[in-house]
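Subject: design request, 108 residues
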C-alpha cells in the first residue's frame, strides 16, 4: 500500500470510529467510549505521521469529520450534565464529581 492509500484507509477508519462513537454516546456505553477514544488517538497519530499530501477531497473529509466530532462532543457534554443531575450535582460542580473535566480540542 502506498502513502496515499494509507491516508485514505486511515481517514475511512476514523470516519467509522466517529460514527460508532455517536452510537456509544447515545447508548451511554462508557466502556466502549474509552476504547474508541484510544482508537481515534491512534488514527490521528497515523494521519499526522503520513507523508501523503492534503488533497481537496481529503480536506473535505477532514472538515466533515470535524463537524461530526463537534456534534459528538455536544452529546458527550449533555450526557455528562445529565449524569451530574442524576447524582444530585449541577453543571457548575464539575470539580466535585469524579475526575476534573478534560478539555477537548478539535483543532489539533
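Subject: RE: design request

Done. Sequence follows.
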Amino acid at each position: 500500500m502506498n502513502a496515499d492509500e494509507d491516508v485514505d484507509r486511515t481517514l475511512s477508519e476514523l470516519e467509522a470510529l466517529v460514527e460508532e462513537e455517536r452510537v456509544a454516546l447515545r447508548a451511554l456505553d462508557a466502556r466502549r467510549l474509552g476504547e474508541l477514544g484510544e482508537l481515534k488517538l491512534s488514527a490521528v497519530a497515523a494521519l499526522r505521521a503520513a507523508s501523503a499530501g492534503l488533497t481537496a477531497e481529503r480536506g473535505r473529509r477532514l472538515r466533515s469529520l470535524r463537524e461530526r466530532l463537534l456534534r459528538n462532543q455536544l452529546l458527550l457534554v449533555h450526557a455528562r450534565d445529565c449524569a451530574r443531575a442524576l447524582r444530585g450535582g449541577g453543571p457548575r460542580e464539575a470539580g466535585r464529581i469524579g475526575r476534573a473535566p478534560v478539555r477537548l480540542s478539535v483543532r489539533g
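The radius of gyration is 16 Å.
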